[in-house]
Amino acid sequence: MQVLVIGGTEFISLHLVRALLRDGHRVAVLNRGRNPARLPAGVRTIVCDRTDHAALRKTLASERCDALVDIAYAPTSGADVEALVDALDGRVGHAVFVSTGRVHDHALPIPYHEDTPRNLYWGDYARNKIAGEDVLMRRWRERRLPVTIVRPTHVYGPLNTRNNETFFFDRLVRNRPILVPGAGGWLRQFGHVEDLADAMAAMLGVPASFGQAYNVTGEEAVTQVGFVELIGEVLKRPVTFVHVETEHGDKPVAFGQNLVYDCHAVYTTTKIRAELGIRARYSLAAGLAQTYEWYVREGLDRRDVDFSAEDARLR
Ligand SMILES: NC(=O)c1ccc[n+]([C@@H]2O[C@H](COP(=O)([O-])OP(=O)(O)OC[C@H]3O[C@@H](n4cnc5c(N)ncnc54)[C@H](OP(=O)(O)O)[C@@H]3O)[C@@H](O)[C@H]2O)c1
After folding, report:
1. Which of 11, 24, 28, 103 shows a CA-CA span of 20 to 30 A to 307?
2. How far is the CA of 264 from the centre of ligand 1 (A)?
3. What phi and psi, each to the nearest 5 degrees, are found at residue 294?
4. Which of 10, 192, 200, 267 to mutate to test the pocket of ligand 1 (most atoms within 8 A of CB)?
5. Per-residue model confidence as pLDDT tens digits over 79-130
6. Which superfamily is assigned to 157-189+219-265+282-314 in CATH?
7. pLDDT by residue (tens digit) across 221-234?
8. Does 266 score more than 90 pLDDT?
9. Which residues contact residue 314 at a Cβ distance below 8 angstroms, ignoring those fewer than 6 apart?
């Protein structure tokens, strides 16, 4: 298949490019060309800012692909998704859109499944993702363009651009305590980036996935402190927690890049398993161990980290 990936050079989209090449596909990526060195050989780069709709139309005028995977968040509005499919009008076999589990109303009881109502619990991010989903689902209903919506959550793994698991690696390798917002009992669910990339690669061109949305993540829900304890086990380091209550008006203590918030985030993956036979391969422990190997290999265990705000809180 000829596959066009929007993005391609950082984290999720780069892992997808690798999975597509492994599976023997021809791959082109569209991005602004800021990180060309990262791309594996044999990938064609189309340099364009996706938010510049006139440039997009011109650049993609003669492109044709069997599958399009829209990953780059610019932040990407519904109009940006529409401009992309318009620019490729009639020349795409299957369009996959990377949305997020955060389209679901997180005030509702867990777990969230694909039909859990969507709302703006997560603000503009949810607004943009819902708009992007709706643009594509409308194309499916009205013009029969094959589309699939993928909703990941807390993606982790090598090359992660979110400082989540690496936030705790940084502290545990230095025997530092972990500040916890409140009780640290909110549930989180993590998905390994290679499982997400494999899932997307496996669904391309599959008719059963057309017009469908799928949660794509790992199988284990874990509390905030449970996540850190698991990392401690993987790293074979003791964990010391310091629970910090947020006083009125105070900022909560930092806890990963985006793991602080006061709600559970738990999702079912029954639909993708049942309908497409796709399931995650990594357990959370195995995925964290593999990510920690990458972190050490890259020398990130020796990187400079500013702990001054944390030290002030501890005092
Ligand atoms: N990480 C998570 O936990 C998580 C969870 C749920 C959903 N998601 C979704 O996953 C997607 C992001 O994945 P990621 O963070 O791993 O990043 P990524 O897609 O691997 O990297 C971002 C890519 O987008 C390109 N890009 C950024 N702005 C662009 C623009 N204006 N025009 C064209 N290309 C642009 C970047 O290249 P240039 O800078 O060279 O343009 C880069 O190749 C987003 O849609 C996000 O909402 C992530």
Report:
1. 11
2. 25
3. -60, -45
4. 10
5. 999 999 999 988 999 999 999 999 999 999 999 999 999 999 999 999 999 9
6. UDP-galactose 4-epimerase, domain 1 (3.90.25.10)
7. 999 999 999 999 99
8. yes
9. 177, 179, 242
